[in-house]
Amino acid sequence: MRRLKSKGDSLTGAGPLLIVLSGPSGAGKDAILSRMKRTGYPAQFITTVTTRPKRTQEKDGLDYKFVSAGRFQEMLKNNQLLEYANVYGNWYGVPVEPVRQALEGGKDTIVKVDTQGAAAIKKLVPQAVFIFIVPPSMEELSARLKGRRTESDFDCDLRLKTAAEEMKQLPLFDYVVVNRQDKINLAVSAIEAIISAEKHRVAPRQVRLPG
Fold first, then answer.
1. Taking the mean position of all CA atoms in its chain, how far away is CA 142?
2. What's the mean pLDDT when you consider all of the chain?
3. What Cα–Cα distance (Å) separates residue 70 from each residue in 6, 67, 74, 91, 105?
4. Contacts for 164 with CB less than 8 Å, ≥ 6 apart
5. Chain segment 134-145, per-residue pLDDT in tens
6. Which domain holds residue 150?
7. pLDDT at 196 > cutoff 60
């Protein structure tokens, strides 16, 4: 494990943070990240690599980096992923080099993963900040999944069952943020407040990436 040189506050010793956002499908992780990007939040947002098909409204390299199954396996073989998981039959992974470069450059770095990915990163980088995004209720989550019309009824039911299991992983995380319908600004403000509080810890987190 290599300790990343801090370019943060020299008095407190606070260095760049690795922020891990997770939560069940439909909780609003993508919408939150999109809002933070649009408002110019000063952090490096890491684009997840995936083998799943691109949805109509998505942009390659912005929402996800869409790659073939063969290319994904090549990245795995070359140890280019910080974490990876198969979710609903598709592969997802966080490329490690952009994370390393951002942190070594002194930038707070935000990655989005599912609960499997969060658990994997927790083992590799326990000093990261883990934030769990949840809907106010399972009923609202069901309405969101069905309302976006990107999955079949069968897939929606599967995601809801998976979400119920993912909610049990809450103890893995440091913080929980409720993302209410049409109140995304409140969720974004909560996340920004968490990051600000972490910058004021008496004992700052010292992020170490493997390798």
1. 21
2. 89
3. 37, 8, 6, 11, 31
4. 138
5. 988 888 887 877
6. 2-46+107-209
7. yes
Question: What's the pLDDT band for 151 if we cut at 50, 70, 90?
Answer: low
14 or 13: which leads in pLDDT: 14
pTM of the predicted model, to two decimals? Answer: 0.86
Q: Are strands 129-134 and 175-178 parallel, antiparallel or unpaired?
A: parallel
Tokens representing 101 are: 């470069």
Number of Cβ within 10 Å of residue 69's Cβ equals 10
In a domain, 51, yes or no: no
pLDDT the model gives residue 146 = 72
Residue 100 lies inside a defined structural domain of this protein: no
Q: What is the CATH number of the domain that holds 115?
A: 3.40.50.300
Are residues 207 and 127 in contact, defined by beta-carbon separation less than 8 angstroms?
yes
Domain contains 76: no
Contacts (Cβ under 8 Å, ≥6 apart) of 7: 15, 16, 105, 106
Structure tokens belonging to residue 109: 């770095």
CA distances from 88 to 4, 22, 50, 73, 172 (A): 34, 16, 12, 17, 22
Structure tokens at 204: 């700052």
- The structural domain count of the chain equals 1
Q: Is residue 205 part of a domain?
A: yes
- Please tell me which residue, 141 or 77, carries the higher pLDDT value: 77
